[in-house]
Amino acid sequence: MLTVNYYNDFFEIGQQKINFNFYELSLPNDDPVYTLKKVMEELNFSGLLANCSDKGRTGYNPIMMYAVITYANMRGVRSIDRIVDLCERDIAFIWLTQGRKPKRDAFYEFKGKKLTSDILDNLNYQFMRRLQKEGFVTLKELFIDGTKIEANANRYTFVWRGSINYHLAGLLDSIDKLYSNYNSFLQDNGFGEKYGLENAQMFVIDGIDKVRDIIEKNRKRKITKHKKLSNNRIIEIDNCSPIEILKLQKNLMAIAKGEDIVFVNRKGKRKPKLQQLYEELEHCGQRLMHYKECFEIMGKDRNSYSKTDLEATFMRMKEDHMLNGQLKPAYNVQIAVENYFIVHSYVSNDRTDYNTLIPVLEKHKEAFGEVLEEVTADSGYCSEKNLLYLKENKIDSYIKLQDHEKRKTRAYSKDIGKHYNMKTMVFEDEQVYICHDGRELRHINTEKKKQNGYTQTYEVYGCSDCSGCEHKSKYLYKYDPDKDIDKNKVMKSNEVWEELREKSHANIQSEKSILKRQIRSIQTEGHFGDIKENEDFRRFNYRSSDKVYKEFMLFAIGRNINKYHRFLYAKLKRLCESKSVNSNFRTSMISIILRRMPSFGIRLYEYNYQKIRPMSRASVKDPGHTHEIL
Q: Tens of pLDDT along 565-601?
């Protein structure tokens, strides 16, 4: 049992307050806040200052606000309320704010209006140019990878394209019946001739017939307990306007005025047939307008969105707390890394990585010019569009193919039904494939497929007669001897894509590519592992892609300055501990590093009347290890 009364000793009356005049407050000599201040001294903040108005009351210094938010992200703090609390209690934040205490409204206004995405990119690129001058990066190669981070949206506020298509098909059937009822109403009562009204024709929506076919197939599959087919077909609903329905309502109102038909809404009153038809048309028009808005929000590039964050897409996450493979609203975050520094970041609502590579490379080209020489990424970025872009811009690609591991198997090389395992010859200026049975597959036609704004060209080859071939079961997909006895071999080949694939496959076989792919997995995936596991950055705090990008970009800038701080201190430590280096040379090198970094001397501060001022070196009793080094 403790004999000392620690409780009363700590809570003794009269000891709740401390007079800070008798205490010397200091930051650690290697605190990253000094490196941040030194880095910011060489940045050009003209873009940020130009975005601030000089009218009205003078607000907080925008450079100081940027420094506080950046330093908070360097320490893994993203919450505004937590930053406000640290500005009142943490000595490093008090030193940055010079004793001022910005409130949450000031931070929200600064991040929402003054600090734009372009300004953040500009500040980050200025820092990258400094790193290039100091030899930390070359900006000639990039290692790219992506991850999914959950959006700040409710999990079950999903809107699916397939669900809208299903309900839209039912709505169009209801509207078709209303058009028939409208025409019958005019003919039965003679209102068409009396008021000069013609029969209305139902509008047509392209693609709805195929949607209805899939709905019927899914109903049969539900009975047989088979998996449903995807019903995410893009329907062109732009030409479908509720104005056509409003015209019918206007005609009904003209009839009601001419025939003195009164609309009733009270309980116990029976509505006239004209009023019933009018209200049904109004209800269907509102539903049609709602579905049209959903398609406009969703666009043509995705099949879902969240009601609470319209720009977030539902994606399959690795964190599955219900263990049922559910989807969550998320953003696809991309980073381009060199020497552990995040050169670029890109936020997309695309579920895959195919369409994210070119925007990142375009950002690099716009910021630094045509200096990029090499790009290393995983198989998620391997597509004809991406590889062709790299080839046209003379950038060496080290991107693994999707079938990289499959190419190593015996089954890949023994599949005689594939065109890459067939012999080729040129006959009458046309390429001809020779199958394993010695029969010719000649060119039939050319097909084009457009997807995501890019057109792929396929050459179709076919055999004129496959009867009697003993390898027919291996050539044809899902061969059925009873049904496919008269079927001939037909295959498609994308020659541009195959050429790019072979070149990329040859690149990744070299020792240089193997080393680069190892570096990519260490640097990019190491960043995401640290961000998610150690920093617990698994969910955004803001909504909309622009705010999400600024939140992640601030976090990336904080990580870059932290990495720069560690690199400089590690270099200084190696020089100080080196015994083989001449003392004069070591002293000169240390002085160079100290010019790059803030002073390493002890910084002591005195807290008096809620203000912080540095104490003079004459009042410092212990000069610290800096003088011992020099």
A: 998 887 777 766 665 556 665 556 555 555 555 443 3
Return the amino acid letter for 216.
E
Buried-state track 209-240, b at ≥16 Cβ within 10 A, e below 16: eebbebbeebeeeeeeeeeeeebbeebebeeb
The strand pairing partners of 492, in sequence order, are 460
Do the strands 141-150 and 374-377 form a parallel or antiparallel pair, or are they unpaired?
parallel
Residue 281: count other Cβ atoms within 10 Å of its Cβ.
22
Angstrom distance (rounded) from CA 564 to CA 585? 23
DSSP code of residue 356: T
Give the total residue count for the chain: 630
pTM > 0.85: no
> What three-state secondary structure class fits 197?
coil
Place of tokens 């169009």: 172
Burial 181-192 (b: 16+ CB within 10 A, else e): ebbebbeeeebb
- The β-bridge relationship of strands 327-338 and 141-150 is antiparallel
Distance CA 570, CA 579 (A): 16
Burial track 246-261 (b if 16+ CB lie within 10 A, e otherwise): eebbebbeebbeeeeb
**Interatomic CA distance for residues 471 and 480, integer angstroms:** 13
